[in-house]
């Protein structure tokens, strides 16, 4: 007699309502395989069909088939990558004819790597022998491995492409990440928020960038942010990891062309600070051998230093935000976005320099995060490092015999 109680049926109604609400909020959709589209342009009469093929991870083909009354003499493919102003074009060569079939190849591997999840917008311009031109309808698609069953989740601050994962888990990670990102907006206060796309690649090596790729801000190979494309790639759907990478994109959006002036301690520190939301009381060990803040412009090369670098960066940022509030950090980023160097920007916003901050941050006893991010990956890196050192020792020992 479960439904006899009127209160229970109200509960169920609420539950159904909430369910419908959450479905429409998250908008989880299956990505349909796109069929080629056919259009009929009347003046001058021209029929065309456009499609794209992804040969993952090597190439993308943009394809056109067109039939006209006059001979088609030229076809130009125009395309843009999400987040970029530049329009790229390709002009394939073909024999002029009333019916043509042509395509443009975009290389997507090695030096031409583009991240999965990147949105590409394209169209063609067709010219006939009489000089008539026809512009095809704009097409948009996400660059994803077509062999996988991708799904898309639209959320407040980003779209997430994922496959072979639990839908509820993905929704949970997205909503937790949105909460953390919204918190960070107190310091980023965008006029134009970035249009971010993320692909969860389930540790697929072929989806990762070549390690030396300069545009990639790597977080110990667990996640990659591509601010220039407003796209991120993460190995696994984890709130901390996703938030960390998206904060990199936020910072890039905030400081624009002056990103090289942002020291790594600030960039990684902000990413880790917002990615880990809890804090507890524990004093900082002032006697520990910390890096000098003035020397922390870049992430160190030695894997054994990387963990300490991230940990310290987060603590410095935590000190700045929790002792002086969001406003001062916001002013610091504003100063950097106007092209000021870090020392000047610190003096203008906080009233002390980077070297003064170096002695101040250790006095912070309030903040210690609870889930150090990426500890597993740091450990893996450290194991590799020790294997390498061990290997070297053996080599030298044998040689000296
Ligand atoms: Zn990072």
Description of the structure:
The chain has 401 residues and is of the alpha+beta class. Among the domains are: 37-142, Immunoglobulins (Immunoglobulin-like, Sandwich), CATH 2.60.40; 262-401, no CATH class. It has 8 helices and 15 strands. It has helices spanning 6-26, 167-188, 239-255, 264-275, 303-337, 342-349, 354-360, 375-400, and strands at 29-30, 37-41, 46-55, 59-81, 88-90, 97-107, 119-128, 133-135, 139-142, 151-154, 158-162, 196-200, 217-218, 223-226, 231-234. The strands form 2 sheets. Strands 2, 3, 4, 5, 6, 7, 8 and 9 form an 8-stranded antiparallel β-sheet that branches. The protein has a 7-stranded mixed β-sheet with strand order 1-10-11-12-15-14-13, with helices on one face. Helix 4 packs across helix 5 and helix 5 crosses helix 6. The protein starts with 5 loop residues before the first helix and ends with a helix. Bound molecules: zinc ion.
Question: Secondary-structure map with pairings?
Answer:
Blueprint: H1 6-26, E1 29-30, E2 37-41, E3 46-55, E4 59-81, E5 88-90, E6 97-107, E7 119-128, E8 133-135, E9 139-142, E10 151-154, E11 158-162, H2 167-188, E12 196-200, E13 217-218, E14 223-226, E15 231-234, H3 239-255, H4 264-275, H5 303-337, H6 342-349, H7 354-360, H8 375-400
Parallel strand pairs: 11-12, 12-15
Antiparallel strand pairs: 1-10, 2-3, 3-4, 4-5, 4-6, 4-7, 7-8, 7-9, 10-11, 13-14, 14-15
Helix pairs in contact: 2-3, 3-4, 4-5, 5-6, 5-8
């Amino acid at each position: 007699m479960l439904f006899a109680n009127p209160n229970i049926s109200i509960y169920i109604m609420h539950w159904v309502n909430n369910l419908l609400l959450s479905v429409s909020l998250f908008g989880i959709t299956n990505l349909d395989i796109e069929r080629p589209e056919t259009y009929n342009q009347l003046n001058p009469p021209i029929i065309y069909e456009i499609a794209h093929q992804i040969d993952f991870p090597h190439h993308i083909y943009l394809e056109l088939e067109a039939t006209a009354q006059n001979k088609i003499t030229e076809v130009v493919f125009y395309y843009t990558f999400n987040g970029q102003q530049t329009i790229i074009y390709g002009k394939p060569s073909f024999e002029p004819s009333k019916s043509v079939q042509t395509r443009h190849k975009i290389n997507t591997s090695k030096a031409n790597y583009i991240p999965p999840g990147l949105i590409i917008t394209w169209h063609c311009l067709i010219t006939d022998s009489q000089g008539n031109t026809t512009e095809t309808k704009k097409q948009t698609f996400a660059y994803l491995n077509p062999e996988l069953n991708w799904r898309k989740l639209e959320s407040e601050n980003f779209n997430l492409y994922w496959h072979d994962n639990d839908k509820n888990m993905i929704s949970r990670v997205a909503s937790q990440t949105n909460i953390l990102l919204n918190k960070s907006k107190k310091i980023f206060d965008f006029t134009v928020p970035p249009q971010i796309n993320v692909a969860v690649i389930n540790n697929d090596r072929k989806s990762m960038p070549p390690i030396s790729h300069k545009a990639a801000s790597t977080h110990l190979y667990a996640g990659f942010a591509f601010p220039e494309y407003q796209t991120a790639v993460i190995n696994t759907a984890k709130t901390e990891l996703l938030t960390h990478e998206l904060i990199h994109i936020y910072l890039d959006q905030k400081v624009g062309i002056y990103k090289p002036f942002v020291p790594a301690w600030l960039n990684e520190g902000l990413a880790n600070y917002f990615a880990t939301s809890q804090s507890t009381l524990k004093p900082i060990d002032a006697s520990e051998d910390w890096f000098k803040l003035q020397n922390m412009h870049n992430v160190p090369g030695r894997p054994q230093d990387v963990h300490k670098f991230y940990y310290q960066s987060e603590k410095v940022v935590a000190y700045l935000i929790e002792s002086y509030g969001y406003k001062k950090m916001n002013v610091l980023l504003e100063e950097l976005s106007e092209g000021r160097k870090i020392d000047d920007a610190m003096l203008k916003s906080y009233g002390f320099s980077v070297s003064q901050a170096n002695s101040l941050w250790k006095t912070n006893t309030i903040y210690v995060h609870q889930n150090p991010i990426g500890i597993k990956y740091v450990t893996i890196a450290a194991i590799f490092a020790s294997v390498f050192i061990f290997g070297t020792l053996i080599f030298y020992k044998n040689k000296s015999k």
